[in-house]
Structure formats: structure tokens, C-alpha cells
Design a protein that fits this description.
InterPro entries: YdbS-like_PH (IPR005182). Keywords: Membrane, Transmembrane, Transmembrane helix. This is Membrane protein. The chain is of the alpha+beta class. The protein folds into two domains: 53 residues; 84 residues, PH-domain like. It contains four helices and seven strands, in the order βααββββαββα. The strands form two sheets. A four-stranded antiparallel sheet has the order 1-2-3-4. A three-stranded antiparallel sheet has the order 5-6-7. The longest helix is centred in the N-terminal third of the chain and has 28 residues. It is elongated and about 70 Å long. The two termini are 33 Å apart.
């Protein structure tokens, strides 16, 4: 899938074909938001009902507003995430308002691992974590389908070994 952006700049290098992360990442993140914000909102509403204190309604209303904000924001954030494999490096981009792009040369990678918690496994997604010699340049690609995460881990590890062997 090619990037829909026509512009070329620091976040959209020319000729780069971006691969999106799985849309199931949005569902997993929304489930987390529902648990962390929805459950306390319901508890706050029950407390406000039982106590009869009108001021207590501010808590569930604020939590519900944050939950609505998550429902709007999270899918956009996930759509903005992507990665691209080039001949000598891997590009990772994310962000809507605060955009970032990380370029990781294959020769700088020390090891690559795949992680998935219980919620991620339930949605069939995983995170590929890249570790380099400098902790500040470690990068992660969250929300990859499990088979793509495995493929990418093996591909990056072999490219990294090839680049190190050539030094």
C-alpha cells in the first residue's frame, strides 16, 4: 500500500512504499480505553446515583468525554502508523499532530524481538522491537499481524547479520 500523501519531506521520503499496521491495533487500544475509562465512569455514575450529590456527576461525565475522545483519536493514530523496508534501513513513522519518523540502519541493529501481551494475542497482533547500540535509537512497530511480525523479525535479523558481517 502506497502512502496517500503526495508531498515529499522529512516524514514522506520520495519513493517509499509504506506498509500500514493492522487495524486490529485500534480495536485493541479502544478495548484498553474502554476498560480504563469506561469501568470507572460506570462506577462514578453509580456512586453519583446512590449518593444523590449532583457534583459527583462531573467524574463520570469527564471520563465519558475522554472515552469519546479516544474513540475519535485512536483510529486516526493507528492509520498514521507505518513502516517501510529499504535496501539499507528500516523506516518507522507515527503520529498525527506530533509526527515522528525513525530510520534504523540494518547494520546498527543488535537484536530484534517480538512481544505480545494477552490482549494483543487475543487480537492476533504483536510488536516488533528493534534494539541498536544506542538506547536512544531503539524503535518499535506495534500492531503487526503475528505472521508479519515473525517474517519481519527474521528478515531484519538476517539483514542485520549480513551488514555486521560486511564490516
Amino acid at each position: 500500500m502506497t502512502s496517500p500523501h503526495v508531498e515529499s519531506g522529512p516524514f514522506d521520503p520520495a519513493g517509499v512504499e509504506w506498509k500500514p499496521v493492522s487495524p486490529r491495533l485500534a480495536t485493541a487500544r479502544l478495548a484498553t480505553c474502554a476498560i480504563t475509562l469506561g469501568v470507572p465512569a460506570v462506577a462514578g455514575a453509580v456512586a453519583a446515583l446512590w449518593s444523590g450529590v449532583a457534583g459527583l456527576w462531573a467524574v463520570p461525565v469527564a471520563l465519558a468525554a475522554l472515552l469519546v475522545w479516544c474513540v475519535v483519536l485512536v483510529p486516526r493514530q493507528v492509520r498514521a502508523m507505518g513502516y517501510a523496508e529499504r535496501a539499507d534501513d528500516l523506516l518507522i513513522r507515527k503520529g498525527i499532530l506530533f509526527r515522528s519518523m525513525v530510520v534504523v540502519p540494518y547494520g546498527r541493529m543488535q537484536y530484534v524481538d517480538v512481544q505480545a501481551g494477552p490482549l494483543a494475542r487475543a487480537y492476533g497482533i504483536a510488536q516488533v522491537q528493534l534494539h541498536t547500540a544506542s538506547p536512544g535509537t531503539d524503535a518499535a512497530i506495534d500492531g503487526l499481524p503475528a505472521d508479519e511480525a515473525t517474517r519481519l523479525r527474521d528478515q531484519l535479523a538476517s539483514r542485520g547479520e549480513a551488514r555486521l558481517a560486511g564490516l
